Fold these 2 entries.
Entry 1:
Amino acid sequence: MNIKDWRRANELFEEVLDLPEEEQKAWLDQTCSDQPSIREEIERRLKADAAAEARNFLAEPVIPSRTLSTGEPSPVLADSAKPDHFGPYRVLGEIGRGGMGVVYAAQRVDDTFHRKVAVKVMAAGSGDDELARRLRTERRILALLEHPNIARIYDGGTTEDGRPYFVMEHVIGVPIDEYCSAHRLSIRQRVTLIRRVCAAVDYAHRNLVIHRDLKPSNILITEEGDVKLLDFGLAKVLENEDQRERISEATVPWRQRLTLNYASPEQLRGQAVSTASDVYSLGVILFLLLTGTHPRSFEGLSPWEAEQKIGSDPPPRASVRAKSRNPIAHPVAEESIKIGRQLEGDLDAIVLKALRFDPNARYRSADQFAEDLNRYLSALPVAARRGTFRYRLGKLLQRHSLAAATTAVVLVLGIALTVSSVFSANRLSQSQTRLLEEQAKLERTQSFLLGVFQQAGPYVAEGVPLTLREAVDAQAERLSDSFGAPPEVYAATLTTLGWVYFELGSLDQALDLHERALAVRQESSLSDGALAGILDGIAAALREQWQFDRADQMSSEALELHRRSEENPPGLLRSLNHRVKLFCLQKNWDLADPLTVEAMELVRIRFDDNDPESAIALVQRGQVLKHLGRRDDARQLYQEAEALFARIYGPRHPILAPLYNNLGVIEEEAERFHSAEKYWRRSDAQYATAFGDDFYDRVIPLTHLGRLLHHTGAVERAETALRTSLEVAVRSPALGPRHEIAYWGRSAVALGALLAATGRCSEVEALLGTKVEEWRIRSKNPLIGEAQALLEDCRAILENAIPENFEPK
Amino acid sequence: MTTHVSTEVTDLLLAWRNGRQEALAELMEFVYSRLLRIGGAYLKDERADHTLDAAALVHECYLRLVQQERVRWQDRAHFFAVAARLMRRVLLDHARRRESLKRGSEIAKIPLDEAMDSFPIRQPQLIALDQALHDLEAKDSQLSELVVLRYFGGMRKEEVSEVLGISSATVSRRWRTARAWLFEYLSEDG
């Protein structure tokens, strides 16, 4: 059999695999009727395939892929003989074994109090210098630490055969997670417990020790309810105050001992570890105590896979996880939901801040973590959720429940002065003063927006309602001076209006207003957050004008300010989204990638599920993942965005149309053709419903659909879709010549390909013949190349077809 | 590990991705020598408490040789593809040396051999399989490549899909072709 037939046989074999077994024979009969040798080859392939499957031929990689430990300590080291004593300590029994050695319960021979101690010793016969070194380091570290919540070291020595050992406090207790379940602790009790663990870890940090292996089995709770931190076997002493270190090559094998579920991203990647790495592990433990599950399970994964997962899938909110908990483990569904509600908001935010991918975005130390847990317990605003006006107001009301009723009424009336009098009884704290300022700013902006609609009302405009655009223009004119508002309020109003123009597509006006807002800076200082918002506005407008370099510069500055000020998380998210869009337009997926991860973290941390920016962040993350080849993940995010958009705007909103279109593309690539067709039809319908049958963007899903149907052999339906698409492109009033190629051309080339394939070459000539020449002068769109090739083929066929009695020489 | 080692490997990796084919050969040579050393040390270091698997060994190698800040995860998939080819070579060399030993030839053992004898490689006539792969490569190099990545590299479908630039659905179908062909080839032989 020649190589061409051999390949053909393989192609057909791969096709036939998709068919149900009972249809295979008929299909082969039909397809290979005139090629018996190919048919025979395929039959043999099918037989071999079944036999290979049955015998597990090559089913597992050559070296069976067993993954590293995901939680349990490494199994036993070779050391079965129980020693009698270590120095003056008599061995009572074995307590446990780990990767580094064995722990025995023992008693000092001459101790009249018969106090029990624990002796940790390097396993016999291991003869490993590295192990011995680690054990000595642990001993040295424990000697540094003297804290009621850290197991204390008493003594140390070397066995007769030269193995180092040390003697420490014998702790009787249970791992923290077991303790919480056994005592059915409430959420508050669990938080209190973790806060105490934080205090012990912070003590270690202040002594420049990083634990690096915090997990429930290393945190015991005694019968008296005391916390005891154990096992500093992987701990590291920081050499200097800058609190960072790089894992040396020698310690790399120790990564194997990491417990994947609790290891921070930087540990998984073998990068610099800091106190924030311990914070991460504490965050995982808190998540576990609150929900009974790990934020992400790395069960059965290699460190490499875990690292990949951790880098691209932000952790879920604890509240969401608690609500969706396995009903078998937690039979009372209502209970889960109740717990979920308790976690919503502050605790969600605190856990997620501890679990941030970027160590700098986490709590800097266990102390800061504990501090925020304290704030949660005292109903103070938590640092993790610093930001929105509504949030802080809510907290204020929570604390001043007596004043709450009054305040609510006052707020409804919207009389800021009265508000201040309510609180003037107390000494006004700084944050309360700020609150009032923000309230004032909010009201100014609101009244300005109200002005827009008053302008648009029929009475004001002498009986003729203005268009929204006219109303905005009229109101903008009134903004020629600061209308007596404080500078910051004036700037906020200008930039709000700038965004309105941006949304209306008037980029020059948008730029003008943002720049005027920026000019306010010359008279009065603006906060970092306000400044960042203005720069975002400028960057977005520049981007839409394709001035990428300047847009990049502005948006980078804006993002930096947002990150620094931390005063406005919604603004930060919007800023990230705009910057991602900038990179997506330039197809720079590598730069967009980390930003979308950051945006996703914010989406998970924030609690405003009605913010369209959250949905935009989902879509853009999806876009990036799609281009990085992670199609299924992208699809999931798109679907999440779909649900969110539908909730915010309603299911008929046109914003869903491009999303459906993208989903169609993903489904086609995954060869789920039926689903792709469904999405494209929905996308088309959504456009048509929202903007009418002649709306030009219908062309996009319709051409996709046409091409798909053509390729899957549904030629008639394909032609219908493509002809509709062509008609839309012809009729659409909004399209000038500039868009002819992108819309009409797109449909025409797809239709042309179909016509050519069905032997209607003269129709192709009629459709594209004159256009292609015209386009070539104007544009470099790759579509034109495709059109030209198509046309040339058709012309060649037409020429050859004319002389019917043509004979080759 | 000195800095220049990781720089070199990283640069080669980037060059290969950017289409410089010679970079692959250089990369192979370089990583091969390292893989032997690390592999030997790895197996010697780890006693009964650690299992060796291809992915962990290669991952370790990757961590040591590549500057991770400079490469994207796609590059990592490509690195693993290199490593898969190397696994094939390491295992084959090992199998051949063992064959020669059986025949009484004098061939120096390398540290890896001893360790390898002790772990459970599934070797369905490894040398015959290698020969079959050579023949398959002549007919359709994508098919043999796919087998190397999956069987020797222990790579998952998605990773293979990234390296070969085909969808994972196609990876599955092509895998069955390759497997069926190899099965038949090896059955005929035996």
Entry 2:
Amino acid sequence: MWAHVVNAALGIWLMAAPGVFGYAQSTPATVDRFAGPVIATFAIVAWWEATRATGRWNVALGAWLVVSPWILGYEPTAAIVNSMACGAVIAALSLVMGDFNPSKYGGGWKSLWQRDPLHEQRDRAGAGEVVGRSSSVKEGGARE
Amino acid sequence: MAKKPRAVTESGDAPPEEASEGVPEKGGEPDRDDHIPPGWEKNPASWGERLPIVGLALMGFGVAMYLSLYQWEVVDRIWEPFFSDTGWNGESEKILRGSSVSKKTMRWFGVPDGFLGAVGYFVDAVTGAVGSTKRWKKMPWIVIVFGLAVGPLGFVSIMLVVSQPVLFNSFCTLCLSSAVISVAMIGPAMDEMLASLQYMKRVRDSGGSVWRRFWGLAD
């Protein structure tokens, strides 16, 4: 969680950096101004437990910031240093998952393509609000 | 559908589920008046979860309407505390009235791009407010429309707003505020969509009619 707070701040910083360092209207400015808000968005969405996983998506964006100065040939040194430093920190912090307990969320997002996930087990145990899998009784919504 | 008082929907009268996962406890659960989805600890469709999102959507609607009224030239000047010398217009004017994006939107849709944002927030607010605290099961379609409007569509609108400095090297305080509001809505809205998607999976896996249940109809 704290890691995604730092990443959100770094993403916002990236939006401002081209103006602060005076390399606006350049290739690194374009990269920073696109990557920054995307990073901040993924990080902030990851503040909520059910969507913690979006924080991980920043690994790729952080890695891109580390390599982009060499792929795209950045001009001012400040842009190179800033991009690489922010990228390294963002990528590292994205690996800090923070607590996500899928058993509080019916098995989480991956339960949607799992066989017999937690929410189906609990549903059967709790008398089944949809259809008991082994029984043919269709209870419909009347039950609730 | 009557709105349940919050005391009922989120009271702690149901004991929290045992931590021992995998082993379904039988009979230990009381009647689910609180509409907690199976395998969950709390109801993601409770008013305590939804009302803040609806509030944010209404705030976003207000901001976007103000922006679009300025773009429509109904109001003459736009508040711009940071990117302007006078506290008005400044870089906001460049983006909202002068940019190619706003002109193209006006030509293609007949309305300013700020108005499209306002429509989006309106959809967020309505689909967030409609339905009872068991709507994740009773009307999955509205929960899923809500989730898609707030999540993926919200992300697209955020990107459109923040692309402005890339394209025009200018910032617009209220546009950025609108983006912040959109970002803040995504996280809290997604869990309810997850509950509805899990419900739809249970319907499919048990051989029910996914189509009919999606619209809240009996099989």
